[in-house]
Request: fold
Amino acid sequence: MNILLTGGAGYIGSHVAAPLVSAGHHVVCFDNLSNSDPSVMERLEAITGQPVPLVTGDIRNGDALREVMLGHAIEAVIHFAGLKAVGESVAEPMKYYDNNVRGTLSLLEAMADCGAKTLVFSSSATVYGQPQYLPLDENHPTSATNPYGRTKLMIEEMLADVAAADPEWRIAILRYFNPVGAHDSGLIGENPNGVPNNLMPFIGRVAAGRLKELSVFGNDYDTPDGTGVRDYIHVVDLADGHVAALDAIAKTNQPLSIWNLGTGTGYSVLDMVKAFERVNGVPIPFRIAPRRDGDVASCFASPERAARELGWTAERDLDAMCSSSWRFEHMLATRNAD
Ligand code: NAD
Ligand code: UFG
Reply:
């Protein structure tokens, strides 16, 4: 298939490009580089053994999208492009509604115009809001606690309306839990601009000596060790989940499908710190800090629907998540030293 990856130069998009190219698909990345570096394409080429084209453009520009989609005879789109910082979305909500919601509408219009009605969308477990029961299955009620989450929810609702209005669409909504880790090669991984918001890239930078210590946000939650529990999923497993979802919607006659992509297992912040130290032999200094606004005690998936319907389950363990993250930090350190 000819597949367009919006946001394909980003953390998750670049990891999904690799198995798609290896499976023989023609992949084109479309990214405005607002949160990524074009050098990722060279590293992707080193992994796949072939160049992966990058078109620099913004999903809010419908003409640019139509040009690339017609030029490459695009048949399916995997839509990663979006802004994802929760705190920033609270401070600048319009930026999030514009980029994420308007951007997705612009993409859907371009896809309809070009007759490409197969779409995989990057949603998030954030759409479950405060968990009412665990593990979270796809039928758990949805709600949003911040503008970022609301953009994901609004897009999900928009996609449901589009699929209901025109049964030619084949849409997969993938609700990611906490993607971490890096490609086995250590060549691509998560490298956020500025100080990381998320746990694993923060731990990586503390390990590398780029940040002094980790602040553990709260140790008085109702969890085994008092720190927050999450469902961390290796990004390479997550990437394989996309390939499985794309295969599934190519065969189904259902216009809309929703799958959780998680492992079903929760680990605490201190579990993550200890695992990183043990696997990589590096100390992670930390201190206990107050709870972070908006955090929940525990959040983990029921991965059963994906296992049943996609034949996909996450295979990589915590050790693989920690060792690959560290390999990627090393690659960055070596590159910066050059
Ligand atoms: P990322 O920031 O690394 O990648 C997103 C990419 O989209 C970036 O390369 C950015 O430059 C690009 N982009 C943003 N706005 C754009 C626009 N208007 N036009 C074109 N390109 C644009 O983030 P990621 O972690 O790879 O996340 C990918 C998707 O998965 C996002 O939609 C995110 O909300 C979702 N998601 C991520 C996580 C996570 O923890 N990483 C969890 C749940 C859901
Ligand atoms: N944490 C710390 N210190 C840090 C960063 C995080 O203790 O410096 C803790 C948090 O309090 C939480 C856990 O580590 O208990 C995980 O936090 P992350 O920020 O890595 O991830 P979240 O679960 O808060 O949120 C992530 C994405 C959201 C997405 C959600 C579900 O940031 O966008 O996963 O997919 F919605």
User: Anything to note?
Assistant: The CA atoms of residues 122 and 319 lie 25 Å apart.
